[in-house]
Amino acid sequence: MRLTISHITEYRYDQPAQFSLQRLRLTPLTGVGQTVLDWKLSVEGASPEVEYDDQFGNRITLVSLDGQQDATRIVASGEVETQDLNGVLGQHTAFSPLWLFLRDSPRTRAGKLTKDLLRGISGDNDLGKMHALMAAIHETVEYKPGTSDTETTAEQALERKSGVCQDHAHVFIAGARALRIPARYVSGYLMMDGKNEQAATHAWAEAHIPGLGWVGFDPANDVCPDARYVRIATGLCYRDAAPVSGMRIGTPGETLMVKVTVASQEQTQSQSQ
């Protein structure tokens, strides 16, 4: 499947910003299941400093703002050809060792509620257990925007029984690691059925299964990623894979606008006719 993607992020500051430094994780890479045919990343109101690959293999673009700016506009767009591999990506190849993905982060630390959830998980092998975990999270944590934020932990999402895709991913990662199965967070894009325009990127998780390697699980939709998904970045949790992160000085407040469009080539052609 050939997907056309447009991702616009715009920050408008209450007062002119004096300085900011931002890491952009907005460049998908060619790899198992996806081939980047064309991709552009442009920034207005900030200057590119350096581009590099981090310890997780994510492509990072570092940009800085130095001076008086009222807004920063970031546009990532391009075409990616994808395959449906039933979520199976194969063996671990990144710089970070596999055991690192057993380590807790503040957002993915398993507590009482995670352990309670795991008591109902069964399966003949690790793959079966991960499918059961995905289904249990989908059933337990309702997709409900506005009930969480980027600092929400897996335990808090389970307590509230609601959240968004990043919360589903964090709960899955917490559960997998509690079962001693390496797991990581994934940020990317999803072509939704009957809806091209979206208000945010998507997030899911991957677990490392003996004999298969990394396998994707999307508890928010209770499916393994298929040709509708494009991977951008991975890490221990949201912090390592956030599309935009960084720091700023001299700005008391900001307004954020995000617009994401993901469509197949067939949809794009039919809309232009």
Tell me the layout of helices and strands.
Elements: E1 2-24, E2 34-44, E3 47-53, E4 59-82, E5 88-90, H1 112-118, H2 126-140, E6 142-143, H3 154-160, E7 162-163, H4 165-178, E8 183-190, E9 197-198, E10 202-209, E11 213-217, E12 229-235, H5 238-241, E13 244-249, E14 254-264, H6 265-272
Parallel strand pairs: 6-7
Antiparallel strand pairs: 1-4, 1-13, 1-14, 2-4, 3-4, 5-11, 8-10, 8-12, 9-14, 10-11
Helix pairs in contact: 1-4, 2-4, 3-4
What Rg, in angstroms, do the CA atoms define? 19 Å
What portion of residues belong to β-strands? Answer: 35-45%
Query: Which overall shape is indicated by the principal axes computed on the Cα atoms?
Result: globular
Flag low-confidence runs: none
| SSE series | EEEEEHHEHEHEEEEEHEEH
Q: Enter the CATH topology name.
A: C8orf32 fold
Overall pLDDT level: 93
Specify the biggest β-sheet: 7 strands, antiparallel
Number of domains: 1
Number of helices: 6
CA distance, first residue to last residue: 20 Å
Structural class: alpha+beta
Q: What is the CATH class? A: Alpha Beta
For the record, the CATH architecture stands as Roll
Task: Give the total of beta strands.
Answer: 14
Portion of residues within helices: 10-25%
Note down, in words, how this protein is organized:
This is Transglutaminase family protein. It holds the Pfam family Bact_transglu_N. The chain has 273 residues and is of the alpha+beta class. The chain has one domain: C8orf32 fold (Roll). Helices cover 20% and strands 44% of the residues. It has six helices and 14 strands. Strands 1, 2, 3, 4, 9, 13 and 14 form a seven-stranded antiparallel sheet that branches. The protein has a five-stranded antiparallel sheet with strand order 5-11-10-8-12. It has a two-stranded parallel sheet with strand order 6-7. Strand 3 and strand 4 form a beta hairpin. Helix 1 packs across helix 4, helix 2 runs antiparallel to helix 4 and helix 3 packs across helix 4. The radius of gyration is 19 Å and the shape is globular. The mean pLDDT is 93.
